[in-house]
Design a protein that fits this description.
Mean pLDDT: 75
Oligomer: single chain
Largest sheet: 7 strands, antiparallel
Structural class: alpha+beta
Order of helices and strands: HHHHHEEEEEEEHEE
Strand order of the largest sheet: 4-3-2-1-7-6-5
Low-confidence stretches: 220-269
Distance between the termini: 6 Å
CATH architecture of the domain at 2-51 and 79-132: Up-down Bundle
Length: 269
C-alpha cells in the first residue's frame, strides 16, 4: 500500500520507510550488497509528479494544439512533429532518471544512519511510521461518489474496525467518518453501485469492487446489526504486530474476497 500511494505521508517519511525496508532486507549498508529497484522501495508516482505537465495552457488551447498537430501530422510537418515528440519524451525520461537517482541517494544516506539496527527493530520502526496515518488498518476501496455534480468525485472508502471513512486520495485526514451505529443499511444497488445509508443520508458510490465492499463491511458490524449474528464479533486491530490478519479485498489485490494475509511485520507491497 505504501508503494502504491495508499498511505499518505511526506516524501521525507517515504524515504525513511525505504531505508528501514533496506535495513530489514539487507541489514547494515554495504556498497557490495544487492539493491532492490527503486520502484520496490519508493512510490513511483511521487517521481512522476515532479515532471512538468504535458500542457500548461487552457483546455481549449490544448485541444486546439492537438487538433493542429493532427492535421499537420499527415503533411510535410509530420516527421518534424514526430521528432519533437520523441525529443520531449527523451527529455522526460532523462529527468525521471535524474529524479530517481537523487531519491535513491537520499534513501541510501538514511540507510547508512541505521547501522546496527536489527531486523525486528527496523520492522517495528517501519510500522510505527505507517501507523501514524489515522486510516492505518482500514481496507480501502477506490470509489466515485455519484452525488457530486458536475462529475463524480474520486475518493477512498476506508472500512475500519470501528467506522467507515471517506478520504480524498493522498490526504491524511478523512473528509467524513461514520461509526457503525450511524449506518442504517448498506448494499449493492447494481453491479457497479454501492449504497451506504447513514441516518437520513444515502451515499452512492461507483466502484468495480461492489461485492468486496459489501463483504468487508459485514464482519466489522457491531453484534446484531445489519443481519449479523448476535454472537458475531467485530474485527479489532491485533495488539500483536506479528499476528496474521484476515481482511477483505481492497486496493491491495488478493486471491479472493477473504484470505489470510502475511504477518503484519513482513514487508509485502
Amino acid at each position: 500500500m505504501v508503494l502504491r500511494g495508499y498511505v499518505p505521508t511526506s516524501e521525507e517519511t517515504l524515504q525513511t520507510l525505504a531505508a528501514l525496508r533496506l535495513q530489514s532486507i539487507n541489514s547494515d549498508f554495504s556498497a557490495r550488497g544487492p539493491f532492490p529497484r527503486l520502484e520496490e522501495l519508493f512510490p513511483p508516482h511521487v517521481l512522476h509528479a515532479r515532471l512538468p505537465a504535458p500542457c500548461h495552457r487552457s483546455p481549449n488551447k490544448c485541444r486546439g494544439a492537438r487538433l493542429r498537430a493532427g492535421l499537420l501530422a499527415g503533411g510535410l510537418w509530420g516527421q518534424a512533429l514526430a521528432k519533437q515528440r520523441a525529443e520531449r519524451d527523451q527529455r522526460l525520461r532523462g529527468r525521471l532518471r535524474e529524479e530517481g537517482a537523487s531519491t535513491m541517494a537520499a534513501i541510501l544516506e538514511k540507510w547508512k544512519l541505521l547501522q546496527g539496527m536489527g531486523r525486528p527493530e527496523a520492522m517495528a520502526a517501519y510500522l510505527a511510521l505507517v501507523r501514524e496515518w489515522p486510516g492505518f488498518g482500514s481496507t480501502l476501496f477506490d470509489v466515485d461518489l455519484r452525488a457530486v455534480r458536475p462529475s463524480p468525485q474520486r475518493l477512498w472508502l476506508g472500512i475500519g474496525a470501528k467506522a467507515v471513512s471517506l478520504y480524498k486520495p493522498g490526504e491524511r485526514e478523512p473528509l467524513d467518518s461514520f461509526c457503525y451505529g450511524r449506518i442504517s443499511s448498506f448494499g449493492a444497488s447494481d453491479s457497479s453501485t454501492f449504497r451506504l445509508s447513514v441516518e437520513d443520508r444515502d451515499l452512492l458510490f461507483e466502484t468495480s469492487q461492489v461485492r468486496y465492499s459489501h463483504c468487508s463491511i459485514t464482519p466489522y458490524s457491531p453484534p446484531g446489526a445489519f443481519g449479523v449474528r448476535a454472537d458475531a464479533t467485530p474485527l479489532e486491530p491485533s495488539t500483536n504486530p506479528l499476528a496474521p490478519t484476515v481482511l477483505p479485498q481492497g486496493l491491495c489485490p488478493m486471491a479472493g474476497p477473504w484470505q489470510h494475509q502475511p504477518p503484519v511485520g513482513s514487508f509485502h507491497s
